Amino acid sequence: MSDLPAAADPGAASPRGRRLRRSVFMVVLGLVAAGTALFVMDRRSTPPLPGEAAGPSGRPDFYMEGAVVDQYRPDGTLEYRLTSDDIRHFSEQALTRLQRPALTLYRPGGRPWDARAREGDLRRPPRGAPEEELELRDDVVLEQDRGDGGFLRLTTSRLKIYPGRQYAESDRDVMIDSHVGRTTATGLEGDLQLGLLTFHSSGNEPVHTVLQPQQFK
Question: Based on CB atoms within 10 Å of each CB, which residue in 21, 36, 70, 147 is the most buried?
């Protein structure tokens, strides 16, 4: 078991302020054997994700149960498959509300990532906007089967995924389990295509890692 200490921030005026003023780390953790590079660093210059926006008013433009959405890349390969118990689409806000969403994000040349949650929002950008965004909320799970018994499973209360660039981020507490061990942190950023996860720590909540005993044999 190892705790990575965080330097205190004397300028913090409140618990929220202390959380935003995170100490600097650039430590490669010992979970690289899981096939994912894990880092710890601060997000001092990056504001936290904004709170959940108020829901759109009025009736949805369309409603569907048992929905399946397939998104393809320009080369014709499948980028992701999104299923939901029901969807409610609001055209004016370019917003689709999802109940029990489940996402499979396909990686070119690699194993896919699977994500699920109790609810979520899919925001499709207007013409000319940079990218599509999927926000998952409540009992969020992001996992990948590595084969040969290897796995990685992330749980949190809120996660944003950008399928086009295979990127995920959260400013909520996260827990990552793998066949190597368990890590907890106060947030993360992840390049899912490269398998690169960057963990965040606060002054009173350091990143914490527990390795499985067999890793020392």
Answer: 36
